[in-house]
Amino acid sequence: MPPPQPLLGGAAPAPARAAPSFLHLLLHTRHRVPTARAAAASSVPASHSSHANDALLLRRAADVADRSAGLTSPHPNFGCVIARPQPNTDSTDSWVVGEGFLYAQGTPCAELLAAQEAGEHACGSTAYLNLEPGDCFGDNTAVGSLVQAGITRVVVGLRHPLKHLRGKAIQALRSEGIQVDVVGEDLQSKLFEEALKSCLTVNAPLLYRAAFHVPFSVLKYAMTADGKIAASSGHASWISGKASRGRVFELRGRSDAVIVGGNTVRFDDPRLTARHVKGHVPVRIVMSQSLNLPDEANLWNVNDAYTIVATQRGARRDFQKKLAMKGVEVVEFDMLNPRNVMSYCYDRGYLAVLWECGGTLAASAIAASVIHKVYAFWAPKIIGGLNAPTPVGDLGMNQMTQAINLIDVSYEQIDRDMLMSGFIEPIPDLSPVIPSVEEIPSVDPEVSPYEANIISFYKTWDIFGAFSNFSPHPIHMPDENGDYFTWPTVEYYYQAHKFVGVDNPQARDIVQEIKLAKSPEEAARIGRTRQKGFPELR
Ligand SMILES: NC(=O)C1=CN([C@@H]2O[C@H](COP(=O)(O)OP(=O)(O)OC[C@H]3O[C@@H](n4cnc5c(N)ncnc54)[C@H](OP(=O)(O)O)[C@@H]3O)[C@@H](O)[C@H]2O)C=CC1
Ligand SMILES: Nc1c(N[C@@H]2O[C@H](COP(=O)(O)O)[C@@H](O)[C@H]2O)[nH]c(=O)[nH]c1=O
């Protein structure tokens, strides 16, 4: 166990912005009526420094949770920080004795990892959680780990966004005699604004998906100092520097899919992989109405990553067949547009989508209101060119007063480039998905926060379908030989394991068949039909 690290004390810096933000909207709609618990808590005023300390540690839990981004999808990003007062001092600053984040689906939860790292120091300490734990495996490990470790207080940033889990872990902890303070309910102070914002941001894709039934969409582009994304010829490599492009790999690694338009394929022949970073590789999606795409392209190499071409129904069927022969999935739409493609991505269970298209498709996506956040890399270069492409094509606006505002803007220098990121206004009010206890009946009359309702998410297009076995998220789990294998979805793993350990040579062949199935639905079909031939499996 490493020696405890000192945590920098003092109040968190005041937020450097004036406009009402994402967070303000949330706070103002979410906590209109103070809860009974909050009223009781506020009668015993906590000191400014203890609030500042809590806020700082909660923010740290969100930062720790961020390390699981791209690895846990479609599960939330969870982080846990365990801290206690510094020994033998009067200081109000805390010592961090353990930290953990959910590394991937099926691995030990953040709370268990943090408690293990803290060891005996966990006893009597406070645990900071960016999000109320869920209970994916029905074994209550998160709550159990904190209880067993002797944690006496838990600070929670957000209640769980999913109805059937909301409030469950909080109640379980309280019933074990642990003091649980939920930000905005038991802890109300301006000092928590930045911490709560971090907790929201680290799970923005899940919150958006649960609230609006669309994947969280980010538009990213690299432009010159004179606002061009390519030369007039269409040549664009490279505008931003190496370090910025490394950040793009990171953004890809956090996304379930990366989208480009037909022209970007024709001009750039991109790969759209998350190179240089380990972990999740997103699906590549090309939107092309004409399907007038090259016969050979990097995106058609599906050994790098899976590729889907979204096109207009009936477009170049001969070319569709060629793509299918290469392993590229072609999906026909009656009306190919960003909104329909986003509904489709939602149905496939995607949480986060990165748009890396040119200005033509970017304008369509913005006009269709499917973009939620923008990442603009700005490089100190001038290329000129009256017709050189710009990041966003025509939006039909002719007055600057019509401009779309970015809010909650951040600026970061990356080597010689500048990265500006911000949310597109209006930021939706997320309160319906994360209401406080008193608000729950008005949002969802049939659900009490302390009663688990059974929810159904069999297919990826069902509500909460991102959690289904069919959701296109691979898992790394043992195969029939006990070797770790990447199963394309949980359904593959589940069906194959019906036959693992069955004393019949045919069973091994069926496992191979399931591994090679083209879709989770096919894996399910094979598993269900073939099990009928095995009396012991019926
Ligand atoms: N610096 C940067 O960050 C980037 C630069 N670029 C550069 O941008 C240039 C290409 O820009 P651009 O032409 O805008 O490319 P896009 O990526 O926006 O591609 C436009 C194409 O998308 C397809 N599309 C499908 N549905 C729609 C829809 N509803 N609305 C609009 N388009 C749709 C069409 O393909 P089809 O014609 O096949 O039917 C259309 O021609 C290149 O020079 C490239 O190098 C591109 C990406 C990022
Ligand atoms: N030119 C340009 C970008 N262009 C984007 O990156 C894609 C190429 O990705 P890949 O083939 O994986 O390297 C390209 O098609 C376009 O979407 N991105 C940037 O960060 N900086 C740049 O200067």
From TrEMBL:
It comes from Sorghum bicolor. Signal peptide: none annotated. Pathway: Cofactor biosynthesis; riboflavin biosynthesis; 5-amino-6-(D-ribitylamino)uracil from GTP: step 3/4. It is found in: Plastid, Chloroplast. Its main location: plastid. One of its GO terms (biological process) is carbohydrate derivative metabolic process. GO terms for molecular function: 5-amino-6-(5-phosphoribosylamino)uracil reductase activity; diaminohydroxyphosphoribosylaminopyrimidine deaminase activity; hydrolase activity, hydrolyzing N-glycosyl compounds; NADP binding. It catalyses: 5-amino-6-(5-phospho-D-ribosylamino)uracil + H2O = 5,6-diaminouracil + D-ribose 5-phosphate; 5-amino-6-(5-phospho-D-ribitylamino)uracil + NADP(+) = 5-amino-6-(5-phospho-D-ribosylamino)uracil + NADPH + H(+); 2,5-diamino-6-hydroxy-4-(5-phosphoribosylamino)-pyrimidine + H2O = 2,5,6-triamino-4-hydroxypyrimidine + D-ribose 5-phosphate. NCBIfam families: eubact_ribD (TIGR00326), ribD_Cterm (TIGR00227). This is Riboflavin biosynthesis protein PYRR, chloroplastic. The keyword Repressor does not apply. GO terms for cellular component: chloroplast.
